[in-house]
Amino acid sequence: MKISLKEVKAGYPPEKRQSDTLWAKMVIRRFSIYLAWLAIRLNISAFTVSIISLLFPMIAMIFWLSSMPLVAIILLMAWLLLDCIDGNVARAMGGTKMGSFVDAASGYAMIGFSFFGLGAYLDITYPDVFSSQFAVFTLLGATISILNLLARLYFQKYLNVLNNSNSAMDGGVGNDKGFLKFVDKNVGIGGFFTPLLLIAYYVEMLIPVLILYGIYTLVYFTGITGKLMLRSRK
User: Fold this and answer.
1) What is the CATH number for 19?
2) CB of 229 closer than 8 Å to CB of 168
3) How far from 7 is each of 12, 13, 45, 118, CA to CA, in Å?
4) Which residues constitute the domain of residue 170?
5) What percent of the chain has pLDDT over 90?
């Protein structure tokens, strides 16, 4: 399919630009536009890109378990690039419902495998940090993944209840603006998480990063769950 680079750039709407994370705006989108254009010229669909991105977090898990963290981190960084590419391609060529589903599933896979994989790698590399028979880092990473996924599952269930209810519940939880929303968006998998992992790897600070994300995720999960419960009472 013949399409100009200018047309691909024009498919990046202002509202999407506004909702993107700082990392995506500053770095990822700049590359994704050119790679999306190349994918279109090669007749690679957005669905194909989404399928590839779905596999990357799972493949990265293998490298975490193989004590090859740098490769795993690069794959996770590439996931975000692919996540932007498939959106650019879909807006230029047209997307499908199945493609949208796979795109969402890819994001859930990223959440599920990235923290879990990091924790497993840390237990393999630093087995004597805690005097415990439990794989503490693996448990922490798995907990972060589970709480992140549960928070999103709770929000989707809230929306389902809202759509099937005649009550006047406020559905604006996911659209809240402000400093906290800004922080949540930019510290997550679509924000500075992957470049932070890369820096932490080189300065040998992966353990503090996992612990900090554990604390943050607990606060986030508690906050969003409480918020949804309070709003569902209306």
Assistant:
1) 1.20.120.1760
2) no
3) 9, 11, 16, 39
4) 5-232
5) 44
